[in-house]
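Researcher: Please generate the 3D structure of the following complex. Treat every line as part of one assembly.
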Amino acid sequence: GQNIDQPTEMTATEGAIVQINCTYQTSGFNGLFWYQQHAGEAPTFLSYNVLDGLEEKGRFSSFLSRSKGYSYLLLKELQMKDSASYLCAVPDSNYQLIWGAGTKLIIKP
Amino acid sequence: EAQVTQNPRYLITVTGKKLTVTCSQNMNHEYMSWYRQDPGLGLRQIYYSMNVEVTDKGDVPEGYKVSRKEKRNFPLILESPSPNQTSLYFCASSSSAGFYNEQFFGPGTRLTVL
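Model: Done. Output below.
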């Protein structure tokens, strides 16, 4: 079976750095997605990792370790607008995305 | 503007009254999908379509129907809605069903079944 685990909620301070973890168990591996979802809105694409290592994209970076079944999203210089849920997802063998329940990130001034 | 649109955005209905939620994309995407999102459960796929006239069940298809008669449209049909179908629904599309393709989501439809 396939399973994705993320923390339910995290709190961080404006201007700080936060790391949101995601662990997964899949029968095969075809990459890992991160999406951002503001409350009541649609998810929007952040990153896709298929190789091990860190990929940086502005204030956001995503890391993948295939051997450990582990990824994290790193958010730097946090802003209030970063308050959102962050969803981790992996494709299964039928091309369908399996989604984690999401991590709600609360930013405090 | 490239986008996925859904209608209606909000709907309150009663048990058993058939309804349709429309979804349309203007990006010429082959792949389209419907999800429902419930608190603590994340996104769960209802149905997906790899191309015109090709649809398949996702993880939670019971109580739903879809059709894909043309590339841009992928309506979701609830023949006899029940209260357990109260949820937030998202339509999504991508250029193909490849692993690496990001999905573009519609704005969502919040459905309440009384």
